[in-house]
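Why does residue order matter? Because the sequence determines the fold. Keep that principle in mind as you read this record.
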Amino acid sequence: MNRLTKMVSVLAATGFALGVSGLASANIVANGSFETGDFTGWTQIGNTGFTGVECPGAPFAGPGDGNCDAFFGPVGSTGGITQNLATVAGVRYFIGFDFDPDGGTPSSFSATFGGTTLISVNNPPNTPYQVLGFTATATGATTALTFNFRDDPGFLKLDSVAVAQAPEPGTMALLGIGMAGLWWKRRKAQ
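Structure:
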């Protein structure tokens, strides 16, 4: 192995290791997949009619982890769930969840992180579970993650709620350098 190949190998391994470690932040949401079979860790808000947790097992729960999901069908007004998360002011967070609309009207869905609207839709069309992801910056030591629903004729479903610190842009650059180095090394080997 020549000196340039060794240097690229070390750079690639270092960039890859640093990048992957930056992506391995822990989920700070309690009971994000509702695997307790109830809303443990969450506070129900607004109209809580026709709302609950079901555990039908795979493949009927969301595409993420576990056997349970939450369903929401408040009639005439919105209801939902909220959870206060321990965050660091000024830090960016990745917020992800699985959402399954049934296409009923009238219906609405919104998600907010510390007052920042992540998504707000009226009468979403019937689709299979959608895996949605957003980034937002925390403004304090505690940040509320809130989901609001209304679905007069049916139910909207939620599963696999996760929030974790987003990797720093520098970490992502190192990951990119590491991946490029591994690609270059492999190409030179062929």
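Residues 96 and 162 are 5 Å apart (CA to CA).
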